[in-house]
């Protein structure tokens, strides 16, 4: 159960539950942030990649002689050079099985292609020169002799007989034939159902579009590889680079990360450029820097989403859910990234049930390689999609059965009295109040006034629609995470963690937990997270688990500090250890050790100073209050909520405008409401982007047709409404803080609420479903087709 003393913190200005501004914002807003591209090391050289202009082809020759002779060029390397150096490939080692029990068929991706190119942007060589301009000139002078081959860009097309084959050893481009669920029981449920709803749903591919393009600096210092790079966790990236790629002990690799301008899953893994930089740095004996340009990012960064899904829901005559079935094609791109197969398989399975009583689930996903950029996790990584499929099925089923969609949800919600609830997906929901939360959202959104607003829109020639998006996410389970606490000589206290802030605001939230636990002044707390040399564990940031992992680690580490502090305070106060007690927030708000029943005591900060100044200490008295602690693990959590969107559609242009947007969420115990609201709004904005604007498009030859912001639309401020944000928390019982995670939930609620609203607006024309993105062109075409068929 959550530690109750952590939940009653409203009296503390910087305690849990307070909207404390982000500690890093003054640094970033005054230009003091240090992103990778801000770093310039002495004697630094520049790297530029040579990429394939073709989606598929056989490499005959890479001619570099003329480029090598150009001014300022220090070296040019190809795949043959890196293979000769003995570097290993990047692979996917996820323990997923085919339906016949055999293992996932993985790809072996070396940093540079040697036999074939498999997507536009596939790296073939790289140039290092004294300046970036010189490196770019030389890269353009590298000659490529490639025999082009036919390309395939869609997963379902890659499954067809006669489709281009990307690898000789992977028959039919199929890397995983995933199946989970009891097919016979599910089939029986569908046969016995009073009604079956079926939808074909396209989960559109997304370019991640982080604010900061990928950038890295490789160096070789004192016999060690050092990589300065934006990532999601230095501990995990060090292990991947050392063990899989560089083939050296982890002690010979150091990863350093400063500020990171967004990632959303994309910067979590090793990339080919990192190997190239480290090899060149070792060869040249000087640092080598690379910073991608935006067009390069569109080509070489891992993309998100991209599934073709047949979704089915079986219901009885009263509208109670009997079974849900997803049959999917998943596009992996040209190479398997570290987590590529997870989204359309295990995460579909865990999340499609959402917060509904659904006895049976079946997920069958066939994952195919295509001549496109590799796909990986993108905010939510399959969790928003699972909820989206269920919510679209519910809306369609309600319409087909003549039922009220809200009542259909109520009828199937899991009740608080049923908690803990053993879901068909294998998850055990520890708590939630789903119907009450939805009712609060409907009230806050003034759904009762929708009919009047719809009539007002109609008077202006516009179609108005209302969309509900219930969601429940199964977060990633918190794994081993460091919770180091170090009392510094300058009077500050450093939290050392293996998670990594790439926009979330960890510093303030973690400091609030520490302030709550030990009474250390908030302004004196610092955060160290981006140096692998400082870590003994680290799960990185991803899967909406950071606070559950690092927060729990800080709570447990604080308990160890108190344990050490009681022994130290007994020495300082000349008392027995048994007579020492600790109060986290004594008079003045700071932590204080004191002798029980007296007013004699010593503050925690003063005690740390006394220990540091002592020339010698008796046996049994700790030299410092410092703690290096590793939180073991905890079950995943289940954040949930309800989003309500209202849109207006102009039938003459197809333009969709979101007019109203309300959310009520259960994120368990909220440490910092300001940060949580910001995280939710960011996720909503990205969900709106996918729902209304964003789509990666490829030509038949595999050329990326949306390779810049001239062709690829991101949501702007004017595309977004004001977001109403309310909380209906039910504390989690599975971690010391009672937190549930919030970072990706915005996408899970916005995809279904916005698309349900769009379809509702168009339903009067007989339109039953529309795929994302609901761009003006797509909406207008749907309206014209509906009118022509009327």
From TrEMBL:
Keywords: Molybdenum. Residues 30-150 form the Aldehyde oxidase/xanthine dehydrogenase a/b hammerhead domain. The keyword Manganese does not apply. It comes from the Bacteria. This is Xanthine dehydrogenase family protein molybdopterin-binding subunit. It comes from Falsiroseomonas tokyonensis.
């Amino acid at each position: 159960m959550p530690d109750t003393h952590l939940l009653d913190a409203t009296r503390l200005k910087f305690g849990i539950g307070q909207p404390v501004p982000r500690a890093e914002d003054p640094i970033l807003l005054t230009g003091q942030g240090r992103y990778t591209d801000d770093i310039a090391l002495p004697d630094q050289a520049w790297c530029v990649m040579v990429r394939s202009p073709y989606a598929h082809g056989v490499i005959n020759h890479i001619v570099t002689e003329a480029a090598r002779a150009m001014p300022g060029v220090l070296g040019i390397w190809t795949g043959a050079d890196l293979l000769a150096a003995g570097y290993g490939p990047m692979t996917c080692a996820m323990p997923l099985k085919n339906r016949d029990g055999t293992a996932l068929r993985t790809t072996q991706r070396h940093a540079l292609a040697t036999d074939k190119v498999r997507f536009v942007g596939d790296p073939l060589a790289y140039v290092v020169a004294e300046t970036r301009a010189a490196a770019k000139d030389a890269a353009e002078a590298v000659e490529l002799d490639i025999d082009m081959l036919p390309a395939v860009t869609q997963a379902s097309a890659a499954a067809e007989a006669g489709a281009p084959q990307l690898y000789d050893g992977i028959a039919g481009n199929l890397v995983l034939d995933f199946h989970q669920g009891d097919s016979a029981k599910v089939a029986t449920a569908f046969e016995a159902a009073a009604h079956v709803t079926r939808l074909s749903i396209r989960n559109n591919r997304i370019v991640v579009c982080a604010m900061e393009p990928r950038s890295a600096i490789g160096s070789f210092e004192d016999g060690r590889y050092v990589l300065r790079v934006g990532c999601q966790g230095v501990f995990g990236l060090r292990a991947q680079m050392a063990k899989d790629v560089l083939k050296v002990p982890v002690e010979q690799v150091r990863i350093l990360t400063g500020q990171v301008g967004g990632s959303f899953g994309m910067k979590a893994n090793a990339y080919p450029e990192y190997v190239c930089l480290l090899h060149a740095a070792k060869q040249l004996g000087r640092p080598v820097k690379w910073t991608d340009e935006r067009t390069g990012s569109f080509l070489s960064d891992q993309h998100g989403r991209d599934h073709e899904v047949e979704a089915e829901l079986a219901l009885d005559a009263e509208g109670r859910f009997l079974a849900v079935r997803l049959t999917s094609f998943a596009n992996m791109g040209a190479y398997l990234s570290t987590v590529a197969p997870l989204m359309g398989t295990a995460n579909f399975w865990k999340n499609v049930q959402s917060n509904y009583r659904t006895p049976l689930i079946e997920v069958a996903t066939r994952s195919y390689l295509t001549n496109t950029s590799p796909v990986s996790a993108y905010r939510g990584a399959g969790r928003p999609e699972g909820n989206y499929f269920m919510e679209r099925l519910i809306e369609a089923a309600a319409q087909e059965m003549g039922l009220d969609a809200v009542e259909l949800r109520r009828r199937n919600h899991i009740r608080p009295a049923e908690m803990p609830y053993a879901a068909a997906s294998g998850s055990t929901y520890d708590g939630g109040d789903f119907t009450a939360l939805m009712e609060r959202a409907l009230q806050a959104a003034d759904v009762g006034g929708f009919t009047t607003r719809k009539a007002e829109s109609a008077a202006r020639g516009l179609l108005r629609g209302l969309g509900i998006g219930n969601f429940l996410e199964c977060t990633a389970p918190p794994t081993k995470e460091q919770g180091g606490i170090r009392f510094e000589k300058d009077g500050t206290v450093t939290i050392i963690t293996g998670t990594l802030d790439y926009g979330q605001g960890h510093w303030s939230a973690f400091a609030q937990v520490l302030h709550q636990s030990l009474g250390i002044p908030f302004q004196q707390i610092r955060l160290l997270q981006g140096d692998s040399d400082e870590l003994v564990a680290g799960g990185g940031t991803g899967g909406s688990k950071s606070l559950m992992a690092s927060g729990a680690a800080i709570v447990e580490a604080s308990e160890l500090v108190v344990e050490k502090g009681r022994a130290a305070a007994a020495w300082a106060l000349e008392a027995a250890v048994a007579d020492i007690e600790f109060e986290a927030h004594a008079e003045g708000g700071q932590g204080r050790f004191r002798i029980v029943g007296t007013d004699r005591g010593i503050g925690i900060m003063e005690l740390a100073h006394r220990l540091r100044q002592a020339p010698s200490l008796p046996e049994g008295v700790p030299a410092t209050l410092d703690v290096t602690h590793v939180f073991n693990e905890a079950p995943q959590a289940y954040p949930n909520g309800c989003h309500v969107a209202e849109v207006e559609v102009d039938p003459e242009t197809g333009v969709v405008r979101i007019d109203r947007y309300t959310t009520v969420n259960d994120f368990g115990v909220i440490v910092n409401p300001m940060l949580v609201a910001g995280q939710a709004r960011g996720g909503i904005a990205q969900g709106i982007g996918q729902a209304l604007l964003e789509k990666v498009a490829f030509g038949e030859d595999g050329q990326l047709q949306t390779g810049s912001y001239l062709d690829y639309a991101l949501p702007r401020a004017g595309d977004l409404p004001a977001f109403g944000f309310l909380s209906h928390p039910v504390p989690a019982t599975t971690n010391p803080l009672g937190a549930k995670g919030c970072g990706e939930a915005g996408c899970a609620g916005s995809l279904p609420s916005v698309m349900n609203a769009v379809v509702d607006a168009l339903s009067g024309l007989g339109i039953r479903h529309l795929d994302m993105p609901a761009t003006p062109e797509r909406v207008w075409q749907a309206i014209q087709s509906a009118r022509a068929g009327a």
